[in-house]
Structure formats: structure tokens, C-alpha cells
Amino acid sequence: MSGHSKWHSIKHKKAKEDVKKGKIFSKLSRSITVAARESGGNVDGNAALTLAIQKAKDSNMPVANIERAIKKGTGELGGETYESLVYEGYGPAGVAVIVEIMTDNRNRTASDIRNIFSKHNGNLGTTGCVAWMFDKKGVILVGKDGSVDEDSLLSVVLEAGADDMKSEDDHFEIITDPIDLKIVSDALESASIKFSSASITMLPKDMVKLKKNDAKKVLKLMDALDDHDDVQEVYSNFDIPDEIMDEIAEES
To answer: Which of 22, 76, 160, 250 counts the most CB atoms within 10 A of its CB?
Structure first.
């Protein structure tokens, strides 16, 4: 398994810890509110809202919180007005970084993100400077809990239109075209196959393999960005060999 996939696993575990602390719910609420504001509060025909709600459910966000976030987006409840932004830049060793933002203060957030990049040996770039290095894809994670074998799972997802499926340490990673994400996830539900998450993501076309010193710097940048309240998602194209990831984990 690549170091990049391990980073996604670390983020997944971190998200679970953040749920316990209530940290992640505000980010999820923003995502739902913005989706509802931009395309209405009905999930039919609003793919962004459907995905935002699914993500909230994956994190066990209370239904009341989800409904409140939708009402804020449709104007039934008052609240802050958020806008979606995307920042692009470079981290240590020249790795490409894409940061998805939802903020109620564009100037404050821009200053914060610029400072985080600068503090962690990176540089904030212009729009489009690294986006061409990524493909927008749907990704579904199915845990290896013994409830389904690899061949059966592969058969279900390919028949539903998935592009590919990869086997990682503790889960299967199913890749789809963004427009097919719901179709494939619905097929899994119909087959009574549980999945831990289903989301639209940016997958790097090529990877930058990192040595230990650069790997530590990149991971610190990823953590700093991920911890910012206005940051929804962070994508990068780094690859850290297993042995280096294990060494860093032991030192943490």
C-alpha cells in the first residue's frame, strides 16, 4: 500500500476521533448548507447535497443537525453565509496541493492558508497551477470485515459501472466516474454490502516519492491544513514508502 493511501487511512481514523470531539460536525454542516443554498434542499437532482448528507451520515452526524444545516441553506433558518473556494499550491519537495474551502470571510481565510503554506515550507499558487495533475473521481471504501469476498465485490461494482477496484490493507477502494458514484453506491446497498464512505475526490495522475525528511514536512503541512476550521478537503500527490511511514509513526 502506498504512503498516500496510508495518509487517507490516517485521515479516516482522525475524522473518527474528531467526531468524538464534535470538531468535524461544523465542517459537515457548512458543506450541507452550501449545497442546499446553491441547488435547493431536495436531494433529488442535487448531487452535491446527496454527497454532503452521505458524508455526514458516514460520520454519524445527528439527523437534527443535518436538517438544520439544510434549512440554513434554503433560508428557513438564519446563519452565516458561506462560499466555496479552492486554493492550489506546492508543499515541500514540490508536491502539489489542492485545498477545498468553505468560509464566511474570504480575506481572513486566504491569509490563514497562505501563512500555513509559508510556515510549512510551501507556497500558495494561482488557480489552475496544479489542478491539471489530478483527475476528479468518485471513491468508495469497503472495509475488509469478512462480510464480502473480493471477487463478489468486484463483480457487483464493475456491473454497476465502476472504473476500478484496489485492495488496500484493511479496505477495498472502488474508483468511479463522479456521475456514477451514486449508481455504484446504490448497487452496493442493494447487494447488502456496507461501505464506510462514498465521496468525490481528486486523485493524482502521478506521484512524488518522498524521503523521510521531506515526508515529515509534508505530513505536517497536511495536518495544519486539515485542522483549519474552514478547510473541507486537502488533496496531494505525494507518495511515502511504507517503511518511512512506519518510522514516522513510531516517532510520533
So the answer is: 160
The 10s digit of each residue's pLDDT in 59-73 is 888 899 999 999 988
**CA–CA distance from 163 to each of 132, 152, 155, 160, 179 (Å)?**
20, 16, 12, 10, 12
List residues bridging with 200 in a β-sheet.
138
pLDDT in tens, 119-138: 999 999 999 999 999 999 99
| Residue 194, C-beta contacts closer than 8 angstroms, at least 6 positions apart | 142, 143, 145, 147, 188
Closest CA to 224 of 113, 127, 129: 113
> Are residues 33 and 245 in contact, defined by beta-carbon separation less than 8 angstroms?
no
Q: Is 119 helix (H, G, I), strand (E, B) or coil?
A: helix
Q: What fold does the segment set 83-132+205-251 form as a domain?
A: Alpha-Beta Plaits (3.30.70)
Q: Which of 27, 23, 3 lies closest to 236, judged by CA? A: 3
Cα–Cα distance, 171 to 173 (Å, whole number): 6
Print the SS3 string covering 54-81: HHHHHCCCCHHHHHHHHHHHHCCCCCCC
What SS3 state is found at 1? Answer: coil
- Amino acid at the residue 3: G
Domain boundaries, the chain: 3-74, 83-132+205-251, 135-204
Going by CATH, does the domain composed of 135-204 fall within 3.30.70.980? yes
